[in-house]
Write a structure and sequence with these properties.
36% helix, alpha+beta
């Protein structure tokens, strides 16, 4: 029997969209084990104004403005990115800084577990096959990422805007 659906707030849904896809796939495949694995981890990531971390019993997400801080007229030898490391007038950005908070949200781990347990059994079964390495190795991380996206789209409502990972889930093994 599938538990009653868990209705997430818009902020909680956005936090889940920002969780590492492989981690969320593990939670969908096996909620209790996935949450325990996350709880035991030192999960923390960020960059470009984003930070994600586990603190106590919560997943936290912060998104800040990412602003040029120190500019130079010439590029160092290592610079090979004409867009990200340069201002529109061609100055090289030597250092970035965080600006105002654009988004901050969190969701408790028990609530994430209840959400995963309330997903349709067929979806969770597909996630389990894509996650499993024993007794038969059927792991398929791209398929697991598609399942995560499907679960979020169908059971968290449509995203209000693309988030940091939203457009990069499928085919981006480097994220994991």
């Amino acid at each position: 029997m599938t538990p009653r659906p868990v209705m997430l707030t818009d902020d909680e849904a956005r936090v889940l969209r920002e969780v590492w896809p492989l981690t969320l796939g593990h939670i969908i495949a096996n909620p209790a084990d996935g949450i325990q694995s996350l709880r035991n981890s030192c999960a923390h990531s960020g960059g470009g104004g984003w930070q994600r971390w586990i603190q106590g019993n919560r997943i936290h997400i912060e998104h800040h403005e990412w602003l040029p801080d120190v500019l130079a007229d010439t590029c160092p030898d290592w610079c090979n990115d004409p867009e990200f490391w340069h201002t529109p007038d061609g100055k090289h950005i030597n250092r970035w800084r965080r600006g105002d908070v654009l988004f901050e949200g969190s969701i408790t781990l028990p609530r994430v577990q209840r959400w995963a347990e309330s997903l349709p059994a067929e979806l969770r079964a597909r996630a389990l096959v894509a996650w499993r390495t024993w007794p038969e190795n059927t792991r398929d991380l791209d398929e697991l990422a598609r399942i995560v996206r499907e679960a979020l789209d169908a059971h968290c409502g449509a995203p209000a805007e693309l988030t940091h990972y939203a457009g990069q889930i499928v085919g981006q093994e480097a994220l994991w």
